[in-house]
């Protein structure tokens, strides 16, 4: 199986989520045409944005993003230093405190997996159709 991968690491900064989205778009564009459709690319970028936002908000403010292109899917993996896995919670329709993201990631992905890190921390993976 041929895979292409890139890695981007970012620390606390107002532009880290935007930087992750930008790196993801560049990664997908580098795959060539017609590697992935526009709608699928938008879905990958949306999932990256959500996972990186969660890593920054709940994972200690640092993350590593790994993107891998497989023949039938794009693998998004986000590592962060928190051992706490994402959890489903009821969306907050009143105060706007969230609860939508993990549902969305799970619904858009072919599969999601959370793997504990070797010490502390975790990696959250989502497989998205090409």
Task: Write a structural description.
This protein is α+β, with helices and mostly antiparallel strands and 130 residues long. Helices cover 34% and strands 28% of the residues. It has helices spanning 16-30, 38-58, 101-108, and strands at residues 4-10, 63-69, 73-80, 111-116, 122-129. A five-stranded antiparallel beta sheet has the order 1-2-3-5-4, covered by helices on one side. Helix 1 (16-30) packs antiparallel against helix 2 and helix 2 packs antiparallel against helix 3. It is globular. The two termini are 15 Å apart.
List the uncertain runs.
6-14
Question: For the terminal residues, how far apart are their CA atoms?
Answer: 15 Å
Give the beta-strand count.
Answer: 5
* Strand order of the biggest β-sheet: 1-2-3-5-4
Mean pLDDT: 82
Rounded to an integer, what's the Rg over CA atoms?
Answer: 14 Å
Outline: globular
Q: How do the SSEs run, as a string of H and E?
A: EHHEEHEE
* Amount of helix: 25-40%
Number of helical elements: 3
Structural class: alpha+beta
Beta-strand percent range: 25-35%
Biggest pleated-sheet summary: 5 strands, antiparallel
Topology, please?
Layout: E1 4-10, H1 16-30, H2 38-58, E2 63-69, E3 73-80, H3 101-108, E4 111-116, E5 122-129
Helix pairs in contact: 1-2, 2-3
Comma- or semicolon-separated keywords:
five-stranded antiparallel beta sheet, alpha+beta, 130 residues, single chain, 3 helices
Can you describe this structure in just a few lines?
The protein has 130 residues and is an alpha+beta fold.
């Amino acid at each position: 199986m041929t895979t292409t991968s890139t890695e981007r690491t970012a620390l606390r900064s107002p532009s880290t989520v935007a930087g992750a989205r930008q790196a993801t778009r560049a990664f997908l564009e580098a795959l060539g045409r017609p590697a992935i459709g526009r709608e699928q690319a938008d879905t990958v970028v949306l999932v990256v944005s959500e996972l990186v936002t969660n890593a920054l908000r709940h994972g200690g403010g640092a993350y590593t993003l790994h993107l891998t292109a497989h023949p039938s899917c794009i693998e998004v993996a986000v590592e962060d230093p928190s051992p706490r896995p994402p959890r489903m919670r009821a969306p907050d329709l009143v105060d706007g405190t969230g609860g939508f993201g993990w549902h969305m990631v799970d619904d858009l992905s072919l599969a999601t997996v959370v793997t504990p890190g070797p010490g502390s921390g975790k990696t959250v993976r989502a497989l998205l159709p090409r």
